[in-house]
Write a structure and sequence with these properties.
It contains 23 helices and 18 strands. By secondary structure, it is an alpha+beta fold. The strands form six sheets. The chain has a five-stranded mixed β-sheet. Strands 7-6-16-15-14 form a five-stranded antiparallel β-sheet, sandwiched between helices. Keywords: Carboxypeptidase, Cell shape, Cell wall biogenesis/degradation, Glycosyltransferase, Hydrolase, Multifunctional enzyme, Peptidoglycan synthesis, Protease, Transferase. GO terms for molecular function: penicillin binding; peptidoglycan glycosyltransferase activity; serine-type D-Ala-D-Ala carboxypeptidase activity. One of its GO terms (cellular component) is outer membrane-bounded periplasmic space.
Length: 717
């Protein structure tokens, strides 16, 4: 009988309570006519109050789909994770074994294919049983289905407290159930009703519907259930908790054998089949459902990021509660951009980067496809729950913003200081103004005092570097030998702070740095639509937090010859009926950066790997690649952001929660190796290169487009 956490348990008629009503009704023939001939009752031929009450009851059952599992899928269709309030997956009747269909009919309603929704003989049989001191239910499968549908609808509307449990039903409740059952039988076939029943009924608190029950108890699909398995499941609906085969195996076997007896009695199986099945041991192969992204089979933090986007989007419900209900109960299929061919190596690499990691250093990788914005991989070395691996525990996603543009939570840590990986924004502004990469700037200049005459059209530039001013210092490079004139190109590939400032000072408009950063999608890791304020001098050197996904996507703009595409992770959302109800499409802006400027930037960033700060990365990709290293001033947040034509990846290593001097990345041992200081090329660099070596072949890795010579050499050359 229908049962479960939010579903009515056994649905016996409550014969004692209804007989008093029956006695009165018999005087006018109302209920008798309804039971024996539903058409007579529904015609309302009598005129007394009982008839009027019966006629006033609803006769149409609106069958809304019961709660089902929402699945998040990778691009290849493999499962990432699932979310549900009731573990249920609907299946058509033809995908339920015949033995399961026979077992449920035999034990619950053996006259199912003979009655019209209510069974007068069953009621009389139950009455006789009650008179004899026993107790027997009389609800048909159709009535049980009706009850489950009504209760599921209440739960779906957030009115679970209004569900009337077994034993609490009044006469009116039972009559409504009967009338709806009669009406339903007129509209639907017996097989359709049986299908609905098998999909809605509870077999366990972990399994609603026959497919989920088959998977939970036997790791089998419903179509493959054997006779003994079917009999066990059919027995559970009478009392899922009482007959739970995990907790009470003896009770479960006894109930199973009772079902087998009924199947034999009603001609569904032979005596030999019965006797063999009764002797069979209880063989469970439990497959407990794993609820939520914390148990995702792959990419738990990406899964969480995707769910946050759905729950934040009014397209899936007017209120947060509506959206949560739709995800938990709606049986959605959320198809994503994640590529398991990349995700597996990314996860393996971040786990290997820091090893056992008792000091809780964070490592992350996130990859975006240039020209589409598709997020292909997202991994970090932490874990959401204990027992999932050696990583330290956190629910925060290292790779994404704290909130979306509207201020809704995305689950991100809020970004980290990108250090010198921010310098290409100044390079992009330089090139967008048509200036060549090999032009010499004065990287010997270290003082930019308050009131320095920056060329700006958008307001005051704030901040200063001048040791002659109280509380300030001269601009510093990482090493002492680089305070000299040099080309803009050399300033980038050797990551010279004074060269970046000299480039900024030589721009026609300092505000072009902000414009370039905006065009590349760079923004504050706090989210909420907050821009990076690049009128603050420290920020052009990467002092403000940015999320790795944002950095990977910004560099993808270079790889795509200046076309910026917003990150996208959801390709399609389908409802339980397979109808498309949402999804994202590429949102790209061609010419966000001038194509030639983007090509010239890539030409410079290739030199980072060939002869600059990236030369320290021992692994080489062996294909055209470009990158930029980055390290914050405390050496505790370090980066390499790099790309091929087809993949742009941000690699991070450090403390994702704290970019201050409270924890320095100096004199530390990571994965058994001692580092006097941590630099972007030392750990984040090999992590990036090792991972990219393994996956670059899946996407375009040909030569980059050559830039025009006017953006390489000054006109005088």
């Amino acid at each position: 009988m229908a049962s479960g956490r939010k579903v009515l348990r056994s649905t016996s008629l409550g014969v004692g309570r209804i007989l008093s009503f029956l006695a009165v009704s018999l005087l006018c023939g109302v209920l008798t006519a309804g039971l024996m001939s539903p058409a007579v009752a529904l015609a309302g031929s009598a005129t007394n109050g009982s008839v009027q009450f019966f006629d006033s009851l609803p006769s149409d059952l609106e069958v809304t789909p019961p709660a089902q599992v929402t699945r998040i899928l990778a691009a290849d269709g493999s499962v990432i994770g699932s979310v549900f309030s009731e573990n249920r997956t609907n299946v058509p009747l033809e995908k339920v074994s015949q033995s399961m269909r026979d077992a449920i009919v035999a034990i619950e309603d053996y006259r199912f294919y003979e009655h019209g929704g209510i069974d007068p003989m069953g009621i009389l049989r139950a009455f006789a049983s009650d008179v004899g001191g026993a107790h027997q239910g009389a609800s048909t499968l159709t009535q049980q289905y009706v009850t489950n549908v009504l209760n599921e609808d209440l739960v779906a509307q957030g009115q679970g407290s209004d569900v009337v449990l077994n034993g609490q039903k009044g006469v009116g409740d039972k009559l409504r159930e009967m009338k709806l059952a009669i009406s339903l039988e007129k509209k639907e076939s017996k097989d359709k009703i049986l299908q609905g029943y098998l999909n809605i009924v509870s077999f366990s608190g972990n399994a609603y519907g026959v497919q989920a029950a088959s998977q939970y108890f036997f790791s089998e699909d419903a179509k493959d259930l054997t006779l003994t398995q079917s009999a066990l499941l059919a027995g559970l609906v009478n009392g899922p908790g009482y007959y739970d085969p995990v907790a009470y195996p003896d009770r479960a076997v006894g109930r199973r054998n009772l079902v087998l007896d009924a199947m034999l009695e009603h001609g569904y199986i032979t005596k030999a089949q019965h006797d063999d099945a009764v002797k069979a041991p209880l063989k469970l192969k439990l497959n407990p459902p794993k609820q939520g992204c914390a148990y995702a089979a792959q990419a738990p933090y990406f899964c969480d990021y995707v769910l946050h986007q759905i729950l934040n989007d009014p397209a899936y419900g007017a209120t947060p509660a509506d959206r949560e209900r739709r995800v938990d109960r709606g049986g959605l299929t959320i198809r994503t951009t994640l590529d398991p061919r990349l995700q597996g190596p990314a996860q393996t690499q971040v786990d290997a980067t820091a090893g056992a990691n008792p000091d809780k250093w964070g490592a992350s990788l996130v990859t975006v496809q240039p020209g589409s914005g598709k997020v292909l991989a997202m991994a970090q070395n932490s874990r959401v729950l204990a027992g999932q691996g050696t990583g330290f525990l956190t629910s925060y996603n290292f790779n994404v913003d704290r909130t979306d543009p509207s201020g809704n939570q995305l689950g991100g840590v809020g970004g980290m200081q990108p250090g010198s990986t921010m310098k290409p924004a100044t390079l992009a502004a330089w090139l967008d103004e048509g200036k060549p990469t090999d032009q010499i700037v004065n990287a010997a200049q270290r003082r930019y005092p308050p009131g320095y005459p920056w060329k700006t059209t958008c307001g005051r530039v704030s901040g200063s570097f001048d040791s002659a001013v109280a509380g300030s210092v001269d601009l510093q490079n990482d090493e002492p030998g680089w305070y000299r004139p040099m080309t803009v190109r050399e300033g980038i590939y050797q990551s010279i702070n004074t060269a970046t400032f000299a480039s900024a000072a030589a721009l026609d408009d300092f505000c072009d740095i902000q414009r370039a950063a905006d065009a590349m999608g760079l923004h504050d890791g706090a989210g909420g639509g907050k821009k990076l304020d690049l009128s603050v001098l420290g920020n052009i050197l990467g002092a403000s937090n940015v999320a790795p996904l944002t950095m990977a996507d910004a560099f993808a703009t270079f790889a795509a010859d200046g076309t910026y595409c917003a990150p996208m992770s959801i390709t399609e959302v389908d409802d339980a009926k397979g109808q498309k109800i949402g999804g994202q499409a590429p949102s790209c802006q061609a010419g966000a950066l001038k194509p030639d400027a983007a090509k010239a930037a890539t030409n410079v960033l290739e030199d980072v790997i060939k002869k600059g700060s990236g030369l320290l990365i021992p692994q080489k990709l062996g294909v055209p690649d470009a990158a930029k290293t980055g390290t914050n001033q405390y050496n505790n947040q370090t980066w390499v952001v790099g790309y091929t034509r087809g993949l742009a990846t941000a690699s991070f290593f450090g403390d994702p929660f704290n970019g201050s001097d409270a924890r320095l990345g100096r004199n530390v041992t990571v994965n058994g190796k001692y580092y006097p200081v941590i630099d972007g090329a030392y750990i984040a660099g090999p992590q990036w290169a090792t991972y990219m070596q393994k996956v670059l072949g899946f996407y375009d890795h040909g030569a980059f487009d050559a830039p025009p010579q006017n953006l390489i050499r000054p006109a005088s050359h």
